[in-house]
Amino acid sequence: MNVDVLSAITARHCKRAYMDRPVPMALLQDVLAAAAHAPSTRNTQLWQVAVVTGAARTRLAARLCADFDADEPVRPDYVNRPPVLDPPYLARAEAAGVGVLKARGIERGDAQARRAHLRDNYRFYGAPVVMILHVPANAASGTFLEIGCFLQNIMLGLVACGLGSCPQYSVAGYSARIRAELGMSADRLIVCSLAVGYPDPQAPVNAFVPERASLAEYTRWYE
Ligand SMILES: Cc1cc2nc3c(=O)[nH]c(=O)nc-3n(C[C@H](O)[C@H](O)[C@H](O)COP(=O)(O)O)c2cc1C
């Protein structure tokens, strides 16, 4: 058994505060090249990724924050969860939400601070690198499964390099803005962004790890 792989998988958790430290482009290239070894139906590799850094990242964050501040309605290109969450799933979602807010010292009733936390998504939690993952607009359900494999490979590769990340569906809510900013045509579907950088080890929010269901809750064995 390769314990390193399992350790990387369990070590990966979302990082929501980053150090002001540049990420070498060669490292990102290595991670992305390795990530593309993800499986895909008939090896189609329909995923694509825009790597946004420097002035382009600053501009994109500013535009998205302006949209958020102007209460622009979000219009994601796809739905990311069932319309109704059954009790165990809802309880997990609520616990994760409460945990992040608590780790950031935000009271549940503090609407202003909660909004500021939500807004932080649109500046990629201060990460110096943002990856935008996108697929063809005619993507099938299976395409999302495949880009999910690619995304997880990226996140694990980043862990191996001492980097942290946070996938963000919230940012994909402003998909038209992203396409316009990055010069993408309408035939690209924005899946999510991925904030990437060196995690701030001092930030309490980075120590928060939502609980996992026990093995027995999601596994049934047949012989
Ligand atoms: C596709 C996807 C979209 C997500 N979108 C957001 C987001 O917009 N903002 C955020 O802070 N976290 C986001 N998350 C992170 C989840 O909240 C997180 O993975 C979950 O609570 C489990 O925590 P962990 O990854 O730290 O173990 C997203 C995760 C995934 C897989």
Strand order of the largest sheet: 1-2-4-3
Q: Kindly name the structural category.
A: alpha+beta
Query: Main β-sheet: number of strands, strand sense, barrel status?
Result: 4 strands, antiparallel
The first-level CATH class name of the domain at 10-78 and 123-208: Alpha Beta
Description of the structure:
The protein has a four-stranded antiparallel sheet, with helices on both faces. The mean pLDDT is 97. The protein contains nine helices and four strands. α2 crosses α6. With 223 residues, it is an alpha+beta fold. It has a domain of 155 residues: NADH Oxidase. Bound molecules: flavin mononucleotide (FMN).
Strand and helix map with partners:
Blueprint: H1 3-11, H2 25-35, E1 48-52, H3 54-69, H4 87-103, H5 111-120, E2 129-136, H6 141-160, E3 164-168, H7 169-172, H8 175-182, E4 188-197, H9 215-218
Antiparallel strand pairs: 1-2, 2-4, 3-4
Helix pairs in contact: 2-6, 3-8
This protein binds flavin mononucleotide.
Flavin mononucleotide binds next to strand 3 and helix 7.
Keywords:
single chain, 223 residues, alpha+beta, NADH Oxidase, 4-stranded antiparallel beta sheet, binds flavin mononucleotide
